[in-house]
Amino acid sequence: MTGTDWQAVAGREYRLQKEDTAHARFFFQPLHHFYHRNLEVLADMADYMALRMGVPVCRMFRNRENQYVTKVGGVPSVLMSLPDEKRYPSLSIGAALAEFHRRTALQDIQYFPESPVGGRVSEWINRMDALGKKYAEIQGKEHADFFEQSFLASFPYFTGCAENAIQLSVDTFIDHTDQEAAVIGHFRFSGLESLYPENPAFWVADDRSRDLAEWLRILAWTRSGADQEAAAERFLDDYEAHFPLTDQLTANLFGRLLFPLSFLECCERYFSGSDQQDRQLLEETIRANEEKAGACESMLTYLTKRYAHRFEAPEWLAAGGAR
C-alpha cells in the first residue's frame, strides 16, 4: 500500500515524527509474509543496522497503541519504510553478503524459535517421505497426466540426490560437535535484490550456507560451462575474502545444493492442488529441473574440487555425475 492509501491509515493509526516522514517511502508488509514473528527483535535489529551501521534496511514502525501490527483492510500488517535508495555500496554480491552475515552473527537464536537450525534434516526426511508416498500412489494409476509422467521418470534420480544430501548432513553433524553460529540470512537469497534493501520480513536465522547455496543454485540454472565455474569462483572468492568458510560450512553448502529443493517444492505445490494456469507453470518447472540436473551436477563437481578433502562427496559425483 503506497501513496494516499498508507497516509490515510498512518494518519489515523500512527504518530510519525517529521524526521521519519521527510524522505521516507512507506508501505505495509502483511504479517503473514514474516518468516520470524518476534517483531520487537527484528525491529531493533533493523534500527541498529540502519542508524548505526549504515545498512540499507527497511525499518518498522509502532502504531499509536505501541504495537507493530495494524489491521489494514482486515489484513494484519506492519508499517515499514524503504531506505534511501541512493545508498548502494560498490561491493560485489559475494563481499556484500559476507559483510551482512559477519555483522549479524547471532550468539543465541532463542528469539527466533522458527529457525530451521537443527531441524533441517528431519524436515527433509519428512517431506521426501511424503513425496515417496505420492510416487507409489501414481505408479498404481492406470492413466497419469503429463506432470505425473515427468514426476515418475525423474523421482528416482532426485530422491537419490536427497538421500545423499541427508546422509552427508547427518555425517557432518556427527563429525562437528560444535555447531556453526547462526546468522541472519534470507528466505530465498536472490542477489542484489535481497541485499538492497534488506527486509526483516524475509530474514531467517540459519547458518551461512543457506544463502550461499541459493545463489550457487541460481548460477547453476543460469550459467553453463566455464562461465558457470568462473561466476561461482568469483562469488566464493569474494565472500571468503571477508568471511571464510569452515569445513562444516563447506559440507553444509554442498548438502544444501545437492538436495533437490526446487524439484520438491514444485511437486508439493502441484500435488496440493493447483489451477490450470498454475499447473502449466509447474509443468515447465519440473521439466526445467530435469534439464538443469546436469548443470547442477557441474556446480557440485566444482565444489568438490574447490573444497577437496574438507568433506566426502558421493562417489557418483566424484566420478563425473549421473547425467
Automatic annotation (TrEMBL):
One cellular component (GO) term of this entry: endospore-forming forespore
Keyword Acetylation in annotation: no
Domain of life: Bacteria
InterPro entries xrefs: CotS-like, Kinase-like_dom_sf
Keywords: Capsid protein, Virion
Keyword field contains Transcription regulation: no
Record's protein name: Spore coat protein YutH
Species lineage: Bacteria, Bacillati, Bacillota, Bacilli, Bacillales
